[in-house]
Amino acid sequence: MFKLVGATGGYGKTTIIRDVSLEVRHGEVVALLGRNGVGKSTLMRFASGSIPAMAGHVEIDGKVAPTAPEKRARLGLGYVPQGRFVFPRMTVAENIAVAAAATGHDHKAAVAAALADFPMLKPKLDDLAGGLSGGQQQVLALARALATQPRILLLDEPTEGVQPSIIDEMAGILKRINTERGIAILVAEQDLDFCLSIAGRAYVMEKGRIRMEVDRDTLRADTALQQDLLGV
């Protein structure tokens, strides 16, 4: 369903990721793991179209995806970047509505669906997004991505700066939307427990490349492997 093929990219003349290939099949949850600075966020930006490709490409449903992020979004690619990037001077409702409208979906229905998925946003609906806590902003960023009705969802460090209770709630929501709606998910994370709770397998990055692919049970059982690959 979703592939990165020979992905090579970075910033300016600096190459961060080199010849990375991976696949997320329909309805699958896959983790992208690795220590700080190995290129996970750069790879996610490459996948979303946020940075230009030096080489390689993205495939959606077996076809090479357009380079523009908004065109990839219209093909069903949702993206929650590291740092959330909500629109701080818009209300919670406006953040969700804008995302839906930009991809051709009904904005009122999107807001209603977001409140059903994330009840914690209901009392904040008319508040400016910039005034939310870090965890609330992360939930809003996820709700905004879901408002585009994605078929593949890219999540970059979704637990960063988020309190444990909200992390647990996010994990439950992600598992539910994956099961009920068939949304495939690629999540770049350092929180191994979070990843093991939702993903069936993982790619582990090292120095801008994929070092290995491993299934959840193998990674969970092998603490020496966890220490070697992730330093946990």
Describe the protein in words.
There is one protein chain. The protein has a 6-stranded mixed beta sheet, sandwiched between helices. The protein has a 4-stranded antiparallel beta sheet with strand order 2-1-4-5, with helices on one face. The chain has a single domain, classed as Rossmann fold, CATH 3.40.50. By secondary structure, the chain is α/β, with parallel strands linked by helices. The protein has helices at residues 40-48, 69-74, 92-102, 107-117, 134-146, 164-181, 192-198, 216-221, 223-230, and strands spanning 2-11, 14-24, 29-33, 55-60, 63-64, 77-80, 152-156, 184-188, 201-206, 209-215. It starts with a strand and ends with a helix.
In a few lines, what is going on in this structure?
The protein is an alpha/beta fold and 232 residues long. The protein has 9 helices and 10 strands. Helix 3 packs parallel to helix 5 (134-146).
